[in-house]
Amino acid sequence: MDLKCNGTKFTALFGDIAELDVDVLTVASSPDLLMSGGIALKIKIKGGQEIEDEAVGKDRGVPGEVIITGAGSLLAKKIYHCVLLNDEKIADPENLTKCVRYTLSSCHEEGYSKIAFPALGSAFKGLSPKLSTEIIVSECKKASEEGMNFEEFVFVVCDQTPYRYYKKALKALL
Q1: 39 near 20, Cβ under 8 Å?
Q2: What range does the domain containing 23 cover?
Q3: CATH value at residue 119
Q4: Which of 47, 51, 138, 158 has its CA 20 to 30 A from that of 37?
Q5: Chain mean position to CA 93
Q6: pTM, full prediction
Q7: 156 touches 117 (CB < 8 A)
C-alpha cells in the first residue's frame, strides 16, 4: 500500500526490514541495547555482530532515547535503536513518541530521506500494534507537513496484525 502526503511516500509493506534499501532502519530496544530477540535479532544476524557491539559500547540507554549505530553489512546506512522499555520491561507510549520525533529530526538534519519503521514496541507490555502504528504514522505525517522533505517512510512488518493497523492508520491520517 502506497500513499503520498506533501510529496513524501508512505508505504506499508509486509516483509523483512533487514532487506530494505533505505537510509535508516529503526528498532525497538531495552536500556541494555542487546539485540537478543525479535526484529533486533534479525537485524543483528543479517547485519553482523558489530551492530550490537557498537550499541552496547555506548552508554546504557534511557527510555525515550535513541542510540545510533552503523548498519554493518545491511543496505541501510544507520540503525536507530529506540529505547522503549524501562527496567520493569514496560514500554510507555510517550517514550515511543519521543523516539520517533527524535529519529525524524535527526534524520532530517543528517539528510537521510528514506526511513523504515517496524511496529516499534508493539509486542511490549504498555504498547499494542494499534497504538504503536498510530503513533508512528501520526509523527511521520507531522514531519511531512512541517516540510522535513523525506522521500519515503516504509512501515514494514512481518506479522499480519500490525500490517492491518498500519494500513488503517495510513488510510485514516492521509
Answers
A1: no
A2: 2-173
A3: 3.40.220.10
A4: 138
A5: 14
A6: 0.96
A7: yes
Contact 34, 52 (CB under 8 A): yes
| Residues 36-75 pLDDT 10s | 999 999 999 999 999 999 999 998 999 999 999 999 999 9
Adjacency order of strands within the sheet including 2-5:
2-5, 8-14, 152-157, 114-117, 24-29, 78-83, 66-70
Please count the helices (runs of H) and the strands (runs of E) in the chain: 5, 7
Give the phi and the psi of residue 120 in degrees, each rounded to 5: -50, 125
Provide the domain count of the chain.
Answer: 1
- Phi and psi at residue 135, to the nearest 5°: -65, -50
Q: 47 is written with which cell numbers?
A: 547485519
Size of the chain in residues: 174
User: Based on the number of CB atoms within 10 Å of its own CB, is 21 exposed (0-12), middle (13-18) or buried (19 or more)?
Assistant: exposed
